[in-house]
Amino acid sequence: MTYINTLGRRKTAVARIYLTPGKGEIQINGRDLKDYFPFEVHQILVKQPLSLLESGESFDVKINLKGGGIKGQAEAARMAIARALVEYNADNRPPLKKEGFLTRDSRMVERKKAGRRKARKRFQFSKR
How does the average pLDDT of the chain come out, rounded? Predict the structure, then answer.
C-alpha cells in the first residue's frame, strides 16, 4: 500500500501525516478526529483541504501531533493534509494555494527579555 508522508507546522505545533487511499477516516495520535478535537471549529479546520477538493471520502489520514495548543495543532494538520494532496496530484495545487492552505504561518510568541516583565512590557517607572 502506498502512502504519502508530509509535515505541517504552525506556531510550535508540528503535524506529521500519512495519507493513504481509503474510506475517509481521520486518526490523530491514535484517536478519532471527534475525540481529539471536541470543538467542531477545529474539526472543520482539519478537513478544509479535503472538503475543498471534495475528496474527503477517498483518503484515510493518520496524524501525529506534537506541541502547541489546540488551534495551532489544527492549523498544522490542515497544512500537512494540503501538502500531501499536492504531492498526490499536482493539479490540486492551484485551488489549495488560492485558499492559503500551503502558506506557512511562521508567527510565534516572542521570547521574554531580561529586565522586562514580558517580551516588551517594562516594569513601572517612577521618577521620584
Answer: 94
Fold topology of 4-99: Ribosomal Protein S5; domain 2 (3.30.230)
Rounded to 5°, the CA angle 109-112-117 comes to 120
Q: Does residue 1 surpass a pLDDT of 80?
A: no
- In angstroms, rounded to a whole number, what is the distance separating the alpha carbons of residues 62 and 77? 10
**Under DSSP, is residue 14 helix (H, G, I), strand (E, B) or coil?**
strand
Neighbours of 11 (CB within 10 A): 18
SS3 51: helix
Name the nearest CA neighbour of 17 among 80, 83, 79, 72: 80
pLDDT tens, position by position, 25-67 = 999 999 999 999 999 999 999 999 999 999 878 999 999 999 9
Residue holding cell 478535537? Answer: 37
